[in-house]
Amino acid sequence: MRMRKKKNLSARMDACGALLVREPALEKGRWRDRKPDAARLRLELGCGKGRFTAETAAAHPEDLYVAVERVPDAMVIAMERCQALGLTNVFFIDGDAAALEQYFAPGEVDLIYINFCDPWPSVKHSRRRLTHEGFLRGYRRVLREGGQIHFKTDNRALFDWSLFQFPKAGFALSEVTRDLHAHGVQGVMTDYEEKFHTLGTPINRCVGAMGPLPDVPLLEGLVQRLPGWEVRAAGGNDVLPVLSLLQSDPAYFDLERRQPTAQSVGDDMALLPPRCVPEQKHYLALWRDGAPQAVLDLVEGYPRERTLYVGFCFLAPTLRRQGLGREIMDAVLQAAGDAGMDSARLACLVQNEAGHAFWRSLGFGDLRRGETIGEHSNPVWVMERLV
After folding, report:
1. Residue 1 pLDDT more than 60?
2. What structural domains and CATH numbers belong to the chain?
3. Number of helices and strands (H, E) in the chain?
4. Which active-site residues does the annotation give?
5. Cβ-count burial 61-88 (b if 16+ within 10 Å, e if not)
6. For labelling alongside 23, which of 63, 259, 312, 338 has CA 20 to 30 A away?
7. Which pTM was predicted?
């Protein structure tokens, strides 16, 4: 439910100006200048009306507390609460959790709170959840080694899903409970939490401590994430089955101005980008019912050390428009993250409008248009996204 616009919002924000950090990027690496004796820097994502913010900051005057909230109408109430308590160890950022790297230096934050974030129940919106592996890996860039994330939610489905996300991002779980207040109120509640606790809704909570990233080899990660497929590296014995698959869509290769041959398939299996070695390349066939139904050409560490290059992605025409292409690429991107990659790049033929729309729907953005790649010099969109 959208919050109503507050009357005199600007004046009320100005009245709490001492608590509002209007240019947080200027504080990056210097937050403790605001409280030189701070034992820890605590960060809350989405503080809402600030009951938890105010009471936690008041209970820990030895720590510096920073709250991020992108809804000013809620944040002004939180600031007024803190100001009424006379707190001097808490500050607010009108910003977004996706921008933390702009506000904080690596290792500057000791603890992050995520309380009752939007569950984004639709699967297609799962990447927007603040406990998605992508966000968790982003938090690693500002947390110190061993730093913690404290997560609370009334949404059981979100909580159970999140318990699988934390380990994938290198966070060891502890204090996992699906009924935090079963034996009496534990810790500081948010306003939202108190309301639902009163109604008898169990509150879920866990703590994640940051440890090493669990890098998983790319192929191993893909096999784990695509249990319905037989995923394996394609070699010389697979040239003819792969060729048969590629020949099922001559219209696509008309865009490339060449039709595949056994020679071209064999060449593509071995082809490497500049300055790459064979160990970086994975030419993969995805098999079902005794035949390859999809082909992937992936190169780790190109053109940057932590970038996965998607050289080719092909799905049998009979399997398209069933969500399988998205399923495969979601698995590729997640496996890339597991393997230590932080981004993915590809080149899409300018004439391939359907392909361009598909990659855009997966979150790839256009870096530049019209570049030519390869001996046939077909103009392409160069596209990239974070993983």
Report:
1. no
2. 9-210 (3.40.50.150), 218-386 (3.40.630.30)
3. 13, 14
4. 118
5. eebbbbbbbeebbbbbbbbbbbbeeebe
6. 63
7. 0.61
